[in-house]
Amino acid sequence: MGAEHAVASPFTLASSVKLRNGAQMPRLGFGVFQSTNAKASTAHALTMGYRHIDSARYYHNEEEVCAAVQKFSGGNLPNEGTGKVWLTTKVMGQEHGTDQTNKAVDESVAIAKKYGLTWDLFLLHDPTAGKQKRLEAWKVLIEKRDQGLIKSIGVSNFGVKHLEQIKEAGLETPEVNQIELHPFLQQRDIVEYCEKEGIVVEAYCPILRGKRFDDPTLVELSKKHSVTVPQILIRWSLQKGFVPLPKSDTPGRIQANADLWDFELDEGDMQQMEKLDEGYAVSWNPVNVE
Question: N or C terminus: fewer CB in 10 A for the chain?
């Protein structure tokens, strides 16, 4: 993203980015994909200061996340006012289409409501359903948002052509596009399009699921700044203007992934990391499906 979204130094867990609708989304999120205990991990993250939790219907842990947020809040509504927790979920491609998406969103809304919560961001998880069902699903999210059932809406794993189809259909542009992003997969065409259209980019797999940590450039930079390779990767993502979503079930790593405020990558560091781009995906990255 452009400088308008670049993180200020020093970074804190209170840092946020403003969406087009005026909502303030925390700049660092906490992912719970494949979490072995999403309730406990979410609780650890919240205790350590995270205020942005990223779930999905596909993860089958929306209820665990909501239960952890409710418990942490002491029964108050944590997604309102001071100290709010930003909650994201997603509806998977196999649930796209008018009827299917209506049913899926209502189910997720009911789970959040059970715990006194509302989803701050609801995403189309992927573009795999095909153009017609994608557009039908997007219209449903717009309607649910307008009804006040969810707050902000966006997409995930959408390539430029998928985003263009939304525009060509005369529908409003997503607030967010969540895609796999790290130095080895920079997806510059999508990032540049999102910057032009005012779409905030969220970065999943920002620490490559633990792969490539022995890369010489990353090792060199971690030694230079006396931090871990994951901290280098997350800081890169923040300085690029993305909203990274690191995940872990280990309390020490959850904490370390948020300890980013006492160092900054300089221009030379960033240039070194720009050179690492090789189109290497550690996840499914379905941005080019029809």
Answer: C
| Domains (range + CATH), the chain | 18-275 (3.20.20.100)
Express each pLDDT in 214-256 by its tens digit: 999 999 999 999 999 999 999 999 999 999 999 999 999 999 9
CB count within 10 Å of CB 282 equals 17
How many other C-beta atoms are found inside a 10 Å radius of the C-beta of residue 253? 17
- Distance CA(187)–CA(239), nearest Å, equals 16
Asked if residue 213 lies in contact with residue 229, where contact means CB atoms within 8 angstroms, the answer is yes
- Is 125 annotated in a binding site? The answer is yes
For residue 182, what is the DSSP state?
B
Cα–Cα distance between 214 and 150 in angstroms, integer? 42
Are residues 158 and 179 in contact, defined by beta-carbon separation less than 8 angstroms? yes
Q: How many residues does the chain have?
A: 290
Among 131, 147, 130, which residue's Cα sits nearest to residue 122?
A: 147
State the catalytic residue, choosing from 59, 115, 193, 204.
Answer: 59
Are 150 and 108 in contact, with CB atoms under 8 Å apart? no
Which residues fall within 8 angstroms of residue 181, CB to CB, at 6 or more apart?
A: 187, 191, 201, 203, 204, 205, 206, 237, 240, 242, 244
Count CA atoms within 13 Å of residue 184 on its CB side: 19
Q: Is 58 a catalytic residue?
A: no
